[in-house]
Amino acid sequence: EKDETSTLWIAxxxxxxxxxxxxxxxxxxxxxxxxxxxxxxxCQTADLxxxxxxxxxxxxxxxxxxxxxxxxMRVEVTPTEETREIAGYSAKLYRVAARSDQGLELDQELWMxxxxxxxxxxxxxxxxxxxxxxxxxxxxxxxxxAIEGFPVxxxxxxxxxxxxxxxxxxxxxxxxxxAPAGSYAPPAGYAIEPFDFMAxxxxxxxx
Length: 207
Fold this sequence. Notes:
- This protein is an alpha+beta fold.
- 17% of the residues lie in helices and 43% in strands.
- It has helices at 52-55, 61-70, 120-131, 138-146, and strands at residues 6-11, 14-19, 22-27, 32-37, 42-47, 73-86, 89-100, 105-113, 150-160, 163-170, 191-194.
- The strands form two sheets. It has a six-stranded mixed sheet, covered by helices on one side.
- A hairpin with a 2-residue loop joins strand 6 and strand 7 (89-100).
- Helix 3 (120-131) packs antiparallel against helix 4 (138-146).
- The longest helix has 12 residues, at 120-131.
């Protein structure tokens, strides 16, 4: 069990997420993704849109394609009339159920608010770029991004092979301020490396 606070910065076509010792930076104007490891003072970079099949060794490409196909999910999104206030915003509950033929089950309770005052459309473009780092669940990701509003609280349960993992993510606050200089670029002095899918990086991946 682990608690972690992350910070999101959004400025037009630029996005940054700071979580633990990692930062994820998306620059849609330059069509670049940066994954910063502050502990190792290194930064992986990749061109967008990200095509994972082209980023793995050639001998593994067929396996990745097959895995993505097998693990793709049937998704059902159920809006409810249930509402509550979270972080000062009125939110509506959506229930999401996703299932794969391989036995992967994902259930989410998403509390979505249309009152959050920032560019949600820009946020969703950034989320789409980060989702592309994960080779499975394309249909689930598409359905999530289609829901109106911003997720002020999301509670997720994943089950597979007898293992159950629960997680939750809740908005604390939204503020308008200037980002520190250089926020949307790799830090000076960090080693720049090509994106390595095999290293296990991913949004919120815990590395």
